[in-house]
């Protein structure tokens, strides 16, 4: 089986759209269709099925995708290790992050030291980073720990805590702290439940015997901050993000008696080859956080 055919198959399996996949590959749609037919003939079974304008993987296609991803990953790892013998450097790192603000300063300083390394950072929920690592679409994750998976390696960075953020014009803006039960009397704009910061807050509230019902759920911290600025409600976000917000129209108030906390750390697949660029980026992050960022 030609490796080129597997590359074509993987792109189509991700896009599930022949035209989009062909554009990504830089070939025509008829060429892609022909190549997929060759692969299906070699395997003796259809890999895709069409229903109207939609394309789906067959059961055989799903099986091939799982193994093809592993083959692609192993070939990439082999190239990296061989390149290391030749003194070559990796040109790209793909990082999933639970908040881009966690990496901004580190990215700037790392790029200044290593301008030839291409960094792709995606702001993702922890579950999405987890999946990206397991499917070899990401090299590194910066997430809330623990992330339980025997295929992953974790390295802690720092402890994150949540804080209460509200417009400075609100009557609560001058209080020194706020308790979890008091949150029930405030309109809240919170993360969606798929985000670990929200899960951490919900867990702390359950332990306190209360349940929060936000008026709005959003997926980005910036949007929550803007809502709070406009006086629509309060939000609860990681203290590390609150510390870098440039808004002067907000009050940042500690949660009491003890703020929900969670460890933030690095995760990567145990089978991932730590080439010089990836290893250097990990060490760079650890050094910055040990020095207080």
- What are the segments in which pLDDT stays under 50 over at least 5 consecutive residues? none
Shape: elongated
Number of beta strands = 12
Overall residue-averaged pLDDT value? 87
Helical amount: 40-55%
Following the backbone from N to C, one meets helices and strands in this order, namely HHHEEHEHEHEEEEHEHEHEEH
Q: Pairing-aware structural class of the strands and helices?
A: alpha/beta
Strand content: 15-25%
C-alpha termini separation? 49 Å
DSSP helix count?
10
Cα-atom radius of gyration: 23 Å
Work out the oligomeric state of the chains in this entry.
Answer: single chain
Tell me the major beta sheet.
10 strands, mixed
Structural account:
The chain has 293 residues and is α/β, with parallel strands linked by helices. 42% of the residues lie in helices and 25% in strands. The protein contains 10 helices and 12 strands. Strand 8, helix 7 and strand 9 (216-218) form a beta-alpha-beta unit. The radius of gyration is 23 Å and the shape is elongated. The model has no long low-confidence stretch (mean pLDDT 87). InterPro entries: LysR_HTH_N, LysR_subst-bd. Residues 1-58 form the HTH lysR-type domain.
